[in-house]
Amino acid sequence: MATYDVIINARTKQVYARSNGSGDGTRIIAIDLPGDIWRDFEHFVAGAREFESAGRLPERNRYVRWATSALFSHLDGVVSHIVKTLVEKDSRFRKDIGGSAKYSLSHKINKLWHYTKNVRRKSLKRLNTDLKFLRDIVNHPSIAESVPDSRTRQTIFLDGTDVYGLAVDDLINAGAEVNSWLDKLCKIYKYERFCDTEKLCTDFAKALAQEDKRIDDLLITVDKF
After folding, report:
1. Cα angle value 84/15/28 (rounded, 5°)
2. How far is the C-alpha of 118 from the C-alpha of 160, rounded, in Å?
3. Which of 41, 84, 109, 142 has an alpha carbon within 20 to 30 A of 75's alpha carbon?
4. Residue 22: its pLDDT value, please?
């Protein structure tokens, strides 16, 4: 009997199937990459705190780097999807942003803030994204950044050495600010920040059963990734 992996993209609701060749029955898997990346951030920042307390500096620095990358990858994933949806469905936003969602994260955040305040007439504070420059350096280690300090308005120079000076507490505080800001943004735009992948799998299995009573002959494993 042919066996398959049925993979559901929790964001787009697209469904893919591939033969798994294991003979163990059909597996239904739902993937929510932005949600998983947020859980990566929580894992790595907690680990950084533990390694720092234990005086294990190399491990602490490793986890700080991955936590920084995960934090802004999650932010980018959520913001970019909201922007993409608005570009497709809202002519006012499309005109404001220039008809394309292919802009930097900072540009998208700024445009969303203006649109939310001036068009949607909703309260949304500005988001401090200073640490994003360190994320950029982590992802592109050869670069250096000349950036404005949001507090002093002075231009500062950042390179790879500054990544190692990032305090775990600063990373935790940045995570709390991003978390709060995204919760507010997602509420305004009715965007599901975290998909219930287990429910998606269960509902899909039930739908299959309704379509084909012979589904009972298959061994279906629901996997929450």
Report:
1. 130
2. 38
3. 142
4. 60
